[in-house]
Records
---
Amino acid sequence: MNLYLVSRRRAWQSEEELAATGDCMGAVLETFAGDVRWVSSYVFAEADGSFSAECVYEAVSEQRLAEYADAMMLPADEVRRVHATLAA
Amino acid sequence: MTFGALLARRTLVGRDDELAALRTLHAEGGPLIAVVHGVAGAGKSALLRAFAAEHERYTLVDGRAIEPTPAGFTAASGAEPELLLIDAAERLRLLDDWLRHTYLPSLPASARVVIATRQAPGAVWRATFGELLHVIALGPLAPADAATVLEQAGLSSAQAAEVNRFVRGHPLSLQLAASALKEAPDAVIPTVAQELAALYLDGLDPETRAALDRACVLRRVTRSLLPDGFERLRGLPFVELTPEGLVIHDTVREAVAALLKATDPVRHRACRADAWRRIRAELPHGGWASVADMIALVEEPLVREAFFPSAVQHYAVETARRSDRDAILQIVARHRPGATTALVADWWDALPDAFRVARNPRGTVVAFTILCELRRIPHGLFLRDPVCQAWREHLRAHPVPKGQTVLAGRIALAHGTGAAPSPCFSALLRDVERASLQHLVRRVYSVQAGDSTDAQLEPLGYTPIPGGATVCDLGPESVPGWICSLAARGLPVREVVFDVDAREIVLDGRTVGLTKLECDVLRYLQDRQDQVVPRASLLRDVWGYEWDGGANAVDVAISGLRRKLGAYAKAVETVRGVGFRLNTSAYGAWARGRADTSGGRPAGGGG
């Protein structure tokens, strides 16, 4: 499994859409049978009222990560494989 | 005056800004709809009552007291209300779409609507109504107003200041804290309503406390459901008298129920069993209110959530629009490419109004199902779809009595998860359950959808049948009877359901067929339940005057009937030298099947 950072820009138009995504994420991840593991997401409020996120996943491939985004009906504007992690 | 009455009638303290905001409904160019939202106990109902008091004509719809269907709502709201106040709207989440798309747009331009609910309206409400919607957040009372409430409740200004340091203006907590402090002046006031409730409950006399324990498993308290506790509870500070009976504030009811279940599970179970028996006895003539009472006893979350969702519903379920065709077929192609996709296209062409879709907050179709009455499926689909053939075979082997409806749920798929359980998939399942309530549904046919989904449906009574199909037989009493049997699970109650039209008797979930004669005899006895029926009357009315086979025929029929009744055989008593009597008092609930429309008083053992 590799670590990926996925940018989802203006993926949600409202708090409700964000909540709905959180609601069904677990069920969709279940169907990926361990190929994709969500680590965490950082959500940003944009000036126009929409929301963007930088999401960290472990995945077996970029392909599976793209399939996961499709299943969630979410954009994946940029997918970057993490080279190394530095933490305090 | 009791504290409960004081709570119900108290004048509104503070909330001047909120009242002024509501009055803008009548201003030139002002909003048409106001939504007041705030946490439980924030004082939404009090604000509504105060605003209503400023008007000569208004209509109040209490979300706790009506059937959560369009018919139930319109029955309560009447025709073209001038000022419509909808309280406890969080109980009407099932009607969200209908209110937004159908009901509210149908009101005359002069109508004004105030909605009180726990959650702020979603983005779809703001998008639908724009500047015509005014949202009013109901926060805690200002310190001066909180002090006024507490001083009105009899606390000194020093006590009031001390209490409000902890409860911070939450109106229900203010009432509870004031009540607790009056009972125990040295009490330390905790910070949350549940703990405040517990503190107050500790001071109740044992009889009232016991009545509260029995009441906490009920959705509402009526004299018939809690004959020896009604008056005791009526004066409590967190109990409100509504058109449906006494309603205990959710926060307190949940706290009391959780406490009882954790500390005395046997008594909690006994309270639920007692409630079940009383509601069961009222069900044949109690209408939606009794069905709702029974649903509140069901522990199966999928059922309870179907009718009383506890959280905000992210997915709106509605009949598919013509423009949804491609989205639906894309979902099918994603999970079942090939023959199934072509088959679903055939269904769409034949029965587009059978498609129900779940939309996410943006309005995108994320899941769909096909649900219709079996008899509406055209012959061509029966020929093309093997599952339809499996349903028909089963129905031929197990026909339902005339007048009862058979539903067919052909497929349910979600974009992200297919047929696996997911929140939007559950929204569709709940929709199917609610659809069952609309008609006298006897049976729902569906398809096997994989282990995890089948496991989700199994507790609801779905069983597999040949041909990859499943069936859920709701029994002769349709949804109310089905709800009863679900609620009875794990409770020390027994049940008999007599279905005259199907010539069946269901004994604790086991169906036993009766001959026509046995059925006629049992019906005759049941119509005269607890009365002694002479042999001669049975012979005259069941066999007919012309019968000359001898009185022994009655004994033979009764003997056969008792054999089939098994453990319930003693319900048919012999009265020596006279005849027979049906005595069901020892058997929990002895219910009359809904299909039986004969006269006579309602059956039901109660007890």
---
Amino acid sequence: MAEPIRMFTSKVVPLDAENVDTDQVVPARYLKVTDKAGLAEALFRDWRFNEDGTLKDPPFVLDQPGMAGRQILLVGDNFGAGSSREHAPWALTSWGVRAILSTGFADIFQNNSLKNGLLPIVVSPDVHQRLWSLIEADPDAQLTIDLAEEGVLLPDGSTIDFTIDPFAKHMLLAGTDELGYLLAKETELEAWEAAHPPRVDTLAGAR
Amino acid sequence: MTEPRTIVAKIWDDHVVTQDPGAPAVLAVDLHLVHEVTSPQAFSGLRARGLKVRHPGQTVATADHSIPTTPRSLPILDAMAAAQITQLETNCAEFGIPLHGIGSPSQGIVHVIGPQLGLTQPGMTIVCGDSHTSTHGAFGALAFGIGTSEVEMVLATQTLLQRDPKTYEVRVDGRLAPGVSSKDIILALIARIGVGGGTGHVFEYRGEAIRALTMEQRMTICNMSIEGGARAGLIAPDDTTFEYVHGREHAPSGADWDAAVARWRSLPTDDGASFDKTITIDANTLEPMITYGTNPGMGIPITARVPSPDDETDASAKRALEHALAYMDLQPGQAIIGQKVDVVFVGSCTNGRISDLRLAAAALEGRHVAAGVRLMVTPGSDEVKREAEREGLADIFKAAGADWRESGCSMCIAMNGDQLTPGQYAVSTSNRNFEGRQGKGGRTFLASPLTAAASAISGVVTDPRTLPGIEDLAAVGGR
């Protein structure tokens, strides 16, 4: 169960690339884990590390001085395309990322992120451009993400509004998860199941 | 008079258990497919909460992603992969889930065995912790990939929370020319709309060219819906669908079959139903497609030239293209035909079925793979492997110098040791050409089985329409 999120302030990691797919976020060879530990090491692995495990020169943006500890990632269009691997948000959150700003996210990645306390924040192309200009002008600019108010507070005191699925927002603010919500629907589920017999029996023939 | 509905709306309405105001729907799941990579943490979650699997009989598991495709008598050398597979066996035994694992005659890629066993049926909701779950949409099912948190929810409740999807009509009119396949239809669609074009939508593939496809060809198209950003893609069921399902192990039989078909016939989208988006593709003008870049949207007709960043007006698209061409080490404006190839991969949940292997074998019969090229053929399931061996396809592949493997995801995701080495070029019948997808530093050209076979013979990217007897070749396949 995720920690409740309400508001946090951080400098920004700018990752200037479009259509970043989940194979880049976590290469497939790191999917052999049976738990969620250690995935920060796999994050953007092939963009960060050489074959021998040393950092690229020049280093990838995550490994540049002053980037460690930043909680907000600013990325290009359509982030998170491809695989359904939840290892992608697990790796991002274990590195410390708590919010990603883009003009759009792939559906499954967005769903997976919201279940792990990682905010996929969609902004318009104009606002996106404004954020890039802001970070270019001041790489150490601090943003405050206010989930309750659905706003990003900029250093000049102005606010960028965003919208997030109201149900997901409620769950994030409360720090509860969807499984708990579903388990509480037992009565409705029993009624539905009584009226809808299973379409298949995968155990047939095995018993 | 009820409002005309799409097939998506009909399946959706049929599966909403309950919905609170402002909340997503609680959607019932008819079939949950499980594999070794995206499930271990979900089972751990169940244990931590003391939960059971609600309906093991609506759940089925296999091992496909991390398993070797070397002979099954050999041990699994990768300790982490071996541990993951052992964990799956433990989890399935503990929670009572049927497992078609290594050694089972029903083992195979999860999206190959569902249809093969007759578990995939029209009108169902089907989920799996795998983005290519959209494959099952070929049967007129609403099928989509989910994350591991959702896998846990479905295991525990046989439901998940979903927002009503938008619909996107993909109409493919006309007829495909010989040598042009369903793989080329889907690559052409994604090249037009881009990898994010279908985000938030479910594709419904319609039109004359779609109706003319066999079930396995339809699966190829639906499989890659996710590469166009759509979580799901489907095709309304028809007689082709019913014929494929009939008689399979888990298909309804007797009076149940008749009742099921009657129900399935009511699924197609009603006349007058509206879609949120529509696109039309003319099959008559399609050529074999191939990708040149690092996402499935970077595709061109095989006779076209690699695009130039100078022609891109959008700054970010220009930079993305420059980056992709640098990774692929291709020159703007160069022909893609004639590009050197090191490896050819035939297999995956996209093109690893028996009809795909028949096409590749027909092209290779009496010929040999070019010197210096490695052709790897990985059947999509153990049953596909046995069938290919019975039909003599395996002998044709071996005589042509190909590497005939055991079934699995293999070099599509390259997490089992089957991979490219840095800098190698592959023509691949799989679904993703992302950087490093088929091995760190590897470069992928996505294409159809016929294009793959033609390229393996010549050692360079080759238009399959130049194969001798292409008209007859293209008619091979069936189902």
